Amino acid sequence: MLSTMQDDQLSLAHLLRHGTRMHADSVAATWTGSEARGATFAETGRRAAKLANALRGLGITGDERVGTFMWNNNEHLEAYLAIPAMGAVLHTLNIRLFPEQLVYVTNHAEDKVVLVDGTLVPLFAKQLPQMTTVEHVVVANGDPASVDAPDGVRVHSYEELLAAQPDTFDWPEIDERSAAAMCYTSGTTGDPKGVVYSHRSIWLHSMQICMSDTMRLSDADKALVIVPMFHAMSWGMPYAAFMVGASMVLPDRFLQPEPIAAVLAAEKPTFAGAVPTIWQGLLQHLDANPQDISHLREVVVGGSAAPPAMMHAFEERYGVPVLHAWGMTETSPMGSVARPPSWASGETAWRYRYSQGRFPASVKARLIADDGSEVPWDGESVGELEVAGPWIAGSYYGDADPDKFHDGWLRTGDVGRITPDGYLTLTDRAKDVIKSGGEWISSVDLENEVMAHPAVAEAAVIGVPDEKWDERPLVAVVVREGERVDAGALREFLRGRVAKWQLPEHWTFVDEVPKTSVGKFDKKRLRAAHADGALDIDHF
Ligand code: AMP
Predict the structure, then answer these.
(1) HEC sequence for 170-238
(2) Which of 301, 326, 387 best tests ligand 1's pocket when mutated (most atoms within 8 Å of CB)?
(3) How far apart are CA 535 and CA 512, in angstroms?
(4) Residue 186: what pLDDT?
(5) pLDDT at residue 189, rounded to an integer
(6) Active-site residue, 100 included
(7) Which one is catalytic: 160, 435, 439, 501?
(8) Which atom of ligand 1 is nearest to the CA of 186?
């Protein structure tokens, strides 16, 4: 028996119409370095219509890919809305990819038009001659004459293109399963993989972002959207905000601690999301230049493990709760969120909050052991996390990669344990696990413990070869500005905090932990530096 319900399609064309109308007065504003330039959602909708008309004029008539090479700003938001809503596919290009990877993903996705931010033209234009499918480049917030285009590529000004267009567009009916947007993974090995989100997956994910067990976004919020719109769809925040009328502040290229603090002071957002390195940097800045940030009802941190010491610092020194979440480009990206159960308080609640969190109803999860068997959710047994659900990738675009999928489940490459009530704690990436004398040492646990030392700004742990134990941990430490600490003191600090046999005997002090294009510790580069003998190491 089939239901009697309407088979209405969950489409971003409807999301655009809805946000523009129901939340006409909500505002999206871009930080310019000294102030914010804003547009209401109504105005954003009109400009999105103009952009859609302009793209039609450039030959985007079906599901062609339109790339964006942009910061988080109003123009990027217009592209987020217009491109999928007109039936085309938004391809957000990571501005920090290596040049050859940028060329690879643009050609692989067959981008036909690319919208480029004026400040990023020098980065982009150099690769343009090798981008074989690009026919049009549209420069926003800059001078199109700055692009030295190869034959066959036409360059336009974003504002001039829009100025000539009507501000309404006949948004089409769209099959909810069709492609809306794509984002390539930022893996450090091999070619990036294309994840293609559907209208349906984005719609459902947006609803989840607003639910009370996750980010609780609502029309009472002003969200500071720090996570790049080119990385995992900015954690889905732009679409979720448009759905419920949450105003947005978009920081453009001003991502250093000082300008972020300035945006906080001027715009007083109620919510924000970013990776730990951004929060860690802001914390150091605030400690040296105190400022009231209690207008933030909460901030979300994910992308890498949130150090508990940092969570405590924000809450206890600044009155801002930090919500820890886990996800991947392949999971849209929200996979789990660490809201403690409502009955938990004190230390118990904190323990839940340190975890990577609980899975929402739409995300199915399981842990798989090396021998392929399922690992119980007993809070202790460890396995590789596999997930499935309506906003989880089931394949990559034009790339079978059977290793990443297992009977329809996504293999995350993350290793951890799950409590009986469904809270995930990740101990490592599968490739970062340290195997010492047949036992596993969690690099994440060690990092968190070292980062709990007040003089430590950052700590990254890798396994290094060891004749007796196979591998032992090496800790790379960045000391906070103005502080002093040595390896002996740090090792003493760890005593009692980690099992004795896990105490690292190799330490190195670095100015900065190498980071990937999306701000995660780049352990591959750290390992290479170690293998090349480039690190100055204290041994015990
Ligand atoms: P990406 O697709 O670039 O966002 O990377 C996804 C990967 O980031 C995951 O597979 C995890 O290894 C890591 N990650 C994301 N969130 C967290 C978190 N809260 N704790 C630990 N690792 C995380």
Answers:
(1) CCCCCCCCCEEEEEECCCCCCCCCEEEEEHHHHHHHHHHHHCCCCCCCCCCCEEEECCCCCCHHHHHHH
(2) 326
(3) 12
(4) 76
(5) 66
(6) no
(7) 435
(8) 3
Q: What is the pLDDT of residue 437?
A: 86
Residue ranges for the chain with pLDDT beneath 50? none
**Token pair of 381 as six digits:** 């047994």
Q: How far is 475 from 462, CA to CA, in rounded Å?
A: 7
Mutation to probe ligand 1, out of 197, 426, 444, 524 (largest number of atoms < 8 A from CB): 426
Domains of the chain, each with CATH number or no CATH: 12-30+39-198 (3.40.50.12780), 332-430 (2.30.38.10), 434-539 (3.30.300.30)
Q: Which residue's CA is minimally distant from atom 9 of ligand 1? A: 328
Provide CB contacts within 8 A for 451, sequence distance 6+.
307, 309, 310, 458, 459
The residue written with tokens 């430590």 in the block is 456
Span 18-33, pLDDT tens digits: 999 999 999 999 999 9
d(CA 92, CA 278): 21
- Report the alpha-carbon distance of residue 199 to residue 84 in Å, rounded: 8
The Cα 124–Cα 117 span in angstroms is 9
Q: Which of 44, 92, 185, 508 is catalytic?
A: 185
pLDDT score of 441? 92
Q: Measured in Å, how far apart are the chain's first and last C-alpha atoms?
A: 70
- Output the CA 275–ligand 1 centroid distance in Å: 10
Tell me, what's the pLDDT at 169? Answer: 98
Which DSSP string corresponds to 100-165? HHHHHHHHHHTEEEEEEEGGGHHHHHTTGGG-TT--EEEEESS-GGG--PPTT-EEEEHHHHHHTS
Whole-number pLDDT of residue 402: 85
Strands 298-301 and 322-327: parallel
Single-letter amino acid code for the residue at 388: A
pLDDT at 536: 94
Give the number of the atom of ligand 1 that is nearest the alpha carbon of residue 333. Answer: 4
| Nearest protein CA to atom 23 of ligand 1, as residue | 304
Q: What is the pLDDT of residue 187?
A: 64
Q: Is the pTM of this model over 0.90?
A: yes
Catalytic residue among 40, 119, 440, 515: 440
